[in-house]
Write a structure and sequence with these properties.
Elements (H helix, E strand, L loop, with lengths): L2 H27 L5 H13 L31 H14 L21 E8 L2 E7 L5 E4 L4 E2 L4 E6 L3 E9 L5 E9 L3
Antiparallel strand pairs: 1-2, 2-3, 4-5, 5-6, 6-7
Amino acid sequence: MSGRTIIYMTKQLSGSIILASTILLAAGCAENNMNDLSQYALDTKQKYMGKVEALPAITPYESYHYQVSKERDPFKPSVSLVKTIALKRASNGIKPNAVRNKEDLEKYALETLVMVGIMNNNGQNWAIVKAPDSSIFRVKKGNYMGENNGKILKITESKIDLKEIVQDGLGGWIERPNKLAISE
């Protein structure tokens, strides 16, 4: 036998040994004895199994037919409310004078007017009022100012007292007091 033959046979023998050991190892892992794993899975599944309550019984829907032909419309005011409002409007007699000529200060909102001073002429107080456009006006008791039919009732050193006529929200009119204080 030559040296080459021995090397060749040694290589074949070592390859055969490696192949045989691999087959034996694979056969040991292929054992079907996984009973302990199967038992653990079953125990875990039973231990953590959720409980779902049964759904309640569904009652069938019973429809109801609503008859409103004899009832009043809820979106219209009642007859008694309409009568009350009509009586209130007729009884108070308050309304703005529609035929009176409007004065210059009635085109401005009262909040935009500024009382800047007062003067007295023959015992009658006159207020000096500045409009938003910087116009200056002189007013006395009985004049009108503001957009709400504000009639001047009294002028003092510190303010102008007015009586305004405004809508009451029910279609009528009411009087409300207001004032314009002097600016400092």
